[in-house]
Automatic annotation (TrEMBL):
Biased composition (Polar residues): 256-271
PANTHER family for this protein: ALPHA-2-HS-GLYCOPROTEIN, FETUIN
Broad class of the protein's primary localization: secreted
UniProt-recorded Gene Ontology molecular function terms: cysteine-type endopeptidase inhibitor activity
Cleaved signal peptide residues: 1-18
TM spans (from-to): none
Stretches for region Disordered: 256-278
Subcellular location: Secreted
This protein's name: Alpha-2-HS-glycoprotein
Species in which this protein is naturally found: Pteropus vampyrus (Large flying fox)
Residues of the Cystatin fetuin-A-type domain: 27-133, 144-255
A Gene Ontology cellular-component term: blood microparticle
Keyword annotations of the record: Disulfide bond, Glycoprotein, Phosphoprotein, Repeat, Secreted, Signal
């Protein structure tokens, strides 16, 4: 009899462990479009953009899942999955992401997929864990929307490299201020008609004057980094090629940690003169933006034939995002939470997640 009782107890214990999670079994559920969920998601997106080393800023597109776990001694942890979309603003562009345009499907859009744990304590949100990756839309889907639209090209394609070099040379030739050096090739597309190469790239000012440069290798990047973002198109024609390039220069970025000056959010057209600023210094391979501060960081290891900068490299060189105290959130018994407007009675239940799509689905 005792053996039978023991078997029954073990069976009940196993049933408890194998039961699916739900309200009252460790976490509470929120609707993916709940304002509190969206607030946590926006903090996650800000975290992505503040730690981007290269490529483009991302914006929130959809919240896929959310669970809210209690955390001892206080606070809650939002375990959240989100989808993002690449914008047209470069990572170094000071424009707030809310003011950045989302790259459209016909431009070969890029989608991000991220997992976050965000702590809410005393009404404040902070990121405990972040993991992301991103990928361009499939070629088939792009061509369905726009059969003649160009697709993303490898950034090391010889035609891309030549177009960037020609565009930068053309820009420096007509620039009356600093001589600019290439920092990053950000995006490229091979346009079928008219046959041309479209590129976007990042440059930085040096201590040389553009009109006086005889040996570019002797030019050094400024101590206070002044980056520019360029768009160019190289079109082949009989007897030569035509280059069209426009650049915008952003505010200077100090290497040493110090507050950014206020009122410096507006970029200035690079067609105007750019004055050398400070004694020369070598440009760090990348920068990490931590709040209002800028610090040097090692370059991530990137695939050679990449066509975009994958978000999985966004946090390379960034200190661990786990809680500084080493304190992890604890799974504990939570009270049953009934969502407002969701019937408890038997019948079909409307799933609160995934949430609404803010732009478009890839």
């Amino acid at each position: 009899m005792r053996s039978l009782v023991l078997v029954l107890c073990l069976a009940q214990l196993w049933g408890c462990h194998s039961a699916p999670h739900g309200p009252g079994l460790g976490y509470r559920e929120l609707n993916c479009d709940d304002p509190e969920t969206e607030q946590a998601a926006l903090v996650a997106v800000d975290y992505i953009n503040s730690h981007l080393l290269r490529g483009y800023k991302h914006t929130l597109n959809q919240i896929d899942k959310v669970k809210v776990w209690p955390r001892r001694p206080m606070g809650e942890v939002f375990e959240i999955e989100i989808d993002t979309l690449e914008t047209t603003c470069h990572a170094l562009d000071p424009t707030p992401v809310a003011n950045c345009s989302v790259r459209q499907l016909q431009e070969h859009a890029v989608e991000g997929d991220c997992d976050f744990r965000v702590l809410k304590q005393d009404g404040q949100f902070s990121v405990l864990f972040a993991k992301c990756d991103s990928s361009p839309d499939s070629a088939e889907d792009v061509l369905k929307v726009c059969p003649d639209c160009p697709l993303l090209a490898p950034l090391n394609d010889t035609r891309v490299v030549h177009a960037v070099e020609a565009a930068l040379a053309a820009f420096n030739a007509r620039n009356n201020g600093s001589y600019y050096q290439l920092v990053e090739v950000s995006r490229a597309q091979l346009v079928p008609f008219p046959v041309s190469t479209y590129v976007e790239f990042v440059v930085a000012a040096t201590d040389c004057v553009s009109k006086e440069v005889t040996d570019p290798a002797k030019c050094n990047l400024l101590a206070e980094k002044q980056y520019g973002f360029c768009k160019a198109r190289l079109t082949g024609k009989f007897g030569g090629e035509d280059v069209a390039v426009t650049c915008v220069v952003f505010q200077t970025q100090p290497v040493l940690p110090q507050p950014q000056p206020e009122g410096t959010n507006s970029p200035t057209p690079a067609e105007t003169s750019a004055k050398p600023l400070s004694p020369p210094a070598n440009l760090p391979a990348a920068t990490v933006v931590v709040g209002p501060l800028v610090a040097a960081a090692p370059p991530p290891s990137l695939p050679v034939h990449r066509a975009h900068y994958d978000l999985r490299h966004a946090f390379a060189g960034v200190a661990s995002v786990e809680s500084a105290s080493g304190e992890a959130f604890l799974v504990e018994k939570a009270p049953t939470v009934v969502q407002p407007g969701v019937a408890v009675a038997a019948g079909p239940v409307v799933r609160p997640c995934p949430g609404r799509i803010r732009h478009f689905k890839i």
